[in-house]
Amino acid sequence: MNHKEDGGYLTLLTSRPLLVIGLCLVFVIVYTIALTLGMVMAIRGNNRSYVSGQPDVGQGAVVSDHETCSEIGRDMFKKGGSAVDATIATLLCSGLLSPHSMGIGGGNFMVIYDAETKLAHTINARETAPNGLTLELNTKTGSRRKALSIGVPGEVMGYWEAHKKYGRLPWKDLFLPAIDLAENGHYLAYTPRLSFDYLLHENIDLSQDKEFCKVYCDDSGKIAPEGAIIKRPRLAQTLRGIADHGPAYLHEGTVADAIVNEIQSKGGVITKKDLAEYVPVVEEGISVDLGDVTLLTMGAPSGGPVLGLILNILQGLNLSAKSLSYPEKYAKTLHMIIEAVKLAFGERWQLGDPAFVSNMKKVVGKMTSEGFADDLRSKLNKYKTHDSSYYTNRSFQAYDHGTAHVSVLAPDGSAVAVTSSIDYFYGSTIMSESTGIIWNNEMTDFSKDNPRNQVQPGKRPLSSMVPSIFVDKSGHVRLVIGGAGGMSITPVVAEVSSYVLFLGDTLGKAMRRKRFFNQLEKNVLVYEKGFPQDILRSLADNFGHEIVQYPGRYMAVLQAIERHPITGKVTEFPDERKIYF
How far apart are CA 571 and CA 238, in angstroms? Predict the structure, then answer.
């Protein structure tokens, strides 16, 4: 049975035909109203639900940006694979079908929850700064700046680390579906095709790039249209090498020599030593007690400590479904969420790579403590907002545009939340001649001014990415969530999580609500088109917020899975915004 949930795609393992039919009807109505016929035709039949098992046991779900990738993750479960196996196979597929957002030329943050031990581990496989990248070089501009923006990739090393501990299927088996897609072809989806046009508006014409054009141009030399069959034989060869030899294929030997020569010939400074010495950071991550649930997420330099602080502030405000019961209360509740975000973001500048910032353990400990949340909550004015200086005297930003998220819940109750990025659309816009890899431009996430986030050899830049898993007091997964969207990732994940955990929303209702976030540096409340006008007027007139409509169609794309706290029923929701993001 097919149904469209726009842009993100799910694979579900549970018997719920009536629910699927209901969702189909809802989305048919929504898209008939909201989308043009051409858009509907472009996305028709892209989602499928797969059913087996009982409604309250053995449920699992894979939520990603594409139907094909979710199917691949589902198939790993059918073969007896773990949550990590399903995740890796899904990500490898996503690197092909969402090449503008992620791939093995980038890095990721991964949170893994083991249902048997009830323990979580995090893997920080974010890109690191090459040893030769100085602050002066990191702030240079010009045509050779692109290669200087490439960080040492950690994506595959992160997969390897996760598989060593949590994998059940052979490593090679996880690569076979992606290799098949790369060799035999896949459709060019709407969003990666749109991203070429977006870059063109910024005077970046990838049809003029020889390597990109080999893959993405049609016979006329222009970027191929949506729906064109794309083949990536060089990347297929690279994936096969990694499948056979592990990440050493990429980080050592003759392939590493070729990678280094290519990047350096374009002005980059990555060396073979940089590639060989890359090591992911494996930790327990951070946990934040939120009453009925516990948040399990990444520590610094991710957005995890900020998310934990936002939710900890909100948890003490006694929010409930009644908080949204009529417009005046609704506006006041949103105002309090906005203020919690601003108060938490006022502390964000203190974060950095713990390997380079000496007091980071203390900073994160404070940010995730109940006492500090209490202190900030006492500053939260329920009736008016303030200038930026009220929340902080500093605000340093980091952006992730080319980003994708995958949420996985295995039938055994284990879960994975992983956010992967190459930073901007198509990363550095450099494709490797020898390997077919699109390299990241993650080094642009370092700050010129904030010493905690200035470039240093081997350092990982600050990020807004925040893959998260919430578990209840019995150790059952309650919510798996994360997203893409630059600076809006952390606040929007906080919003949607709050709707589900504190305000009584179903996951579907929470994900469909119009979104907002306040970029503290500008102190402007940005909202999505279609946001209720009476609520906006109240936020402006009664609470003093300066409001501006988001220039794009949608902000922040999330992928989430919810497990009902009473029935145990699993509900997945791939974000309908992805196709426009």
Answer: 36
Q: Is the peptide bond before 301 cis (omega within 30 degrees of 0)?
A: yes
d(CA 553, CA 527): 10
Q: What is the pTM of this model?
A: 0.90
The runs of H, that is alpha helices, within 318-470 are: 327-345, 360-367, 370-379
Domain residue ranges in the chain: 9-194+233-282+408-486+558-580, 195-230
For each successive 10 residues of the chain (581 residues), what is the average pLDDT?
34 39 36 29 26 44 94 96 98 97 98 97 98 90 78 98 98 98 96 94 94 97 97 98 98 97 96 98 97 97 98 96 94 97 94 96 96 97 94 62 90 97 95 98 92 96 97 97 93 97 96 91 90 96 96 86 94 81 43
The closest alpha carbon to 523, from 397, 396, 398, 385, belongs to 385
Phi, psi of 258 (to 5 degrees): -65, -40
b (16+ CB within 10 A) / e for 189-223: bbbbbbbbeebeeeebebbebebbbebbbeeeeeb
Are 152 and 457 in contact, with CB atoms under 8 Å apart? no
Chain centroid to Cα 207, Å, comes to 27
The answer to whether 312 touches 340, Cβ cutoff 8 Å, is no
Q: Where do we find the tokens 């059940």?
A: 168
From the list 90, 122, 392, 403, the catalytic residue is 403
Check the CA dihedral 578-421-446-296 and report its sign: positive
Q: Which residues contact 443 (CB under 8 A, 6 or more apart)?
A: 127, 129, 133, 138, 148, 149, 150, 151, 455, 461
CB atoms within 10 A of CB 503: 22
Distance CA 73, CA 96 (A): 14
- d(C-alpha 82, C-alpha 93), whole Å: 17
Closest CA to 270 of 453, 98, 400, 437: 437
- Backbone torsion region of residue 223, taken as left when φ is above 0, otherwise alpha when ψ lies between -120 and 50, otherwise beta: beta
403 is catalytic: yes
Distances (CA, A) of 290 to 192, 349, 482, 511: 38, 24, 18, 21
Residue 143's Cβ-count burial label (10 Å; 0-12, 13-18, 19+) is: exposed
Q: Which helix (H) or strand (E) holds 239?
A: helix 233-245
Partner residues linked to 409 by β-bridges: 61, 415
Give the integer Cα–Cα distance in Å for 516 and 127.
Answer: 29
